[in-house]
TrEMBL record:
Family matches, as PANTHER family: MALONYL-COA-ACYL CARRIER PROTEIN TRANSACYLASE, MITOCHONDRIAL (PTHR42681)
Keywords, ordered alphabetically: Acyltransferase, Transferase
KW Acyltransferase (keyword) present: yes
Gene Ontology BP, a term: fatty acid biosynthetic process
E.C. designation(s): 2.3.1.39
Domain of life: Bacteria
UniProt-recorded Gene Ontology molecular function terms: [acyl-carrier-protein] S-malonyltransferase activity
Domain Malonyl-CoA:ACP transacylase (MAT), first and last residues per copy: 7-302
Official protein name in the record: Malonyl CoA-acyl carrier protein transacylase
Catalytic activity, reaction form: holo-[ACP] + malonyl-CoA = malonyl-[ACP] + CoA
Family in the record: Belongs to the fabD family.
Amino acid sequence: MMQLGILMSGQGAQYAGMGQDLYDQEPAYRAVIDRASDLAGMDYQKLVFNDATRLNQTRYAQPAIFAMSMGIANALKPVLSPIKGALGLSLGEYSALTLAQAMDFDQAFKLLLDRGAYMQTASEEIKTEMIAVLTEHQDQVLATVEEVQAQGMHVYPANFNTPKQLVLAGDASGIAAVREIFSEAGFKVIPLAVSGAFHTPFMASAGRLLKQRLADERFKQSLFPVYSNTTGKPFVDIQTTLGEQITRPTHFTQALTAMLADDVDTLIEFGPNKSLTKFARQIADKSIQRLAVTDYASLQAVRETLAKNQEEAAWN
């Protein structure tokens, strides 16, 4: 029987029109999106999912991606077992924790409405940039970051996505300085179209507000391990870890490696695209099955695969 590890998409996966076929054809998915609309006081399917301008704003993107991921989970609920663990990228951790019933949908959605607003406001305080550096020589990248920091420039590691992809964030002068060094070293550098330097000290004001917001929240024991981007280990103190998460770098490689070590043999991503599935290809052994649900066709295919898996297990 498959040992499932669920991957929950993060910000950047969104695009206008995402999930429209799921909304039109899958009642269990539509019910979740409609609940999100009720909580937000606006038609999320019409005014967010299909509006590129809104969807690319952090305050809307985060709750929208969460709602889509949870809608997919709701549609697959009858065949989605046993889950060995879950892992989300940044905001995807809220999706993973909700799947594990450590928090409920309404609680997580409201938290993300506020988290997205805090992070967007922090992003508007100072102009920043993010770049992806594609190289297996990450120690050299980090050494360069330390060099420019020693010169008074503000550049930080933000996302350790794979053994060959490290995302940096900083102000314009700092990013320009490291790009020149990386170009001379022959490293491929890709500028990222994001609204802020997430997971760095640039998010300090958002971090303070989020910690205050989380202070009165109560969480339950997870039904299965949820692996933190911040620690690379299963969540223990949800409140503290989520509060620290937006100012500290994400460690997707470390967290996924830990989840796979707990005998997960099948990964399924829930969200607008296959970004985490692609990361997993660079991290997981080739024997690990990788699936993704991003639209109605892929939902049907994965549902059939999971149903067949349950039938075979029942016969054994």
